[in-house]
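Researcher: Go.
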Amino acid sequence: MVNAKLHNLIWKTKMLLKEIYFYSSVRLKYDRGNRGKLVFDPKDREKHIIFGYFQIGKIVKVSEETKLPRWMLYHPHTIKERRKIRNNTIYVARKWLSWNSSLPGAYFFNYSKNLVLTKEGCPKSYWNIPTFFRNLEISYHSNNSWKSDGTFKSAGRGQEFVIEENEKVEEWAKNLIEENFYNTDSDFPLSLTLRLK
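Model: Structure:
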C-alpha cells in the first residue's frame, strides 16, 4: 500500500505507469538439511530480500461511490472505512511488463543471492546496492544515507521508496527481473516461504 505522501509524489512526478515495485523484508536461511531449500528462520537476523515485483498498469481512485469489479472486492482498500479516505487508491498490475511482453506484470521470485539488498553481516537497513544510486534522489533519504564504505543506510520509515528516474537504475531493475524470472537454481519459491510464517 502506498502512503499519502508517496502517492502524491508518484502523481507529481508522472511515474504512474512506469513505476515498478519490488517487495522485500523477511528472515530466511538456506537450509542444506532441508534439501537445500530456503526456509523461514525466526532466529536469523532480518534481511531485506527482493521477493517479487509489480509494475503499475492501472490506478483506481476508490471512494464511497466507486463501482469496482467483483475480483477487486477482496482488497483492504475497498472496505467502507477506507473508501472515506481522500487518496484511497488501488494499483492494478499490468498484465505483461511494458518492456518484455513475455513476462507477467507481477511475479514472485525464487530466492537468489542477487536479490538480497542487506549487506552481509549488517542490520537489514544497510544495503549493498550499485554505486550509480549514490547521487539520485530517493524519498526519505539524503547524501548522508551513504556510508564511507559505500553502504546505503535505508530509512527506517516508509514501506516504499521512490527513486529518481535514471537509465542505469531502470536497466538494473529490468535485468534483475529478467534474470530472476528465469532463475531455476532454487526449487522453493520465496512466495511459499513467506506463507510458512
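Model: The helical segments are 4-12, 80-83, 167-181, 190-195.
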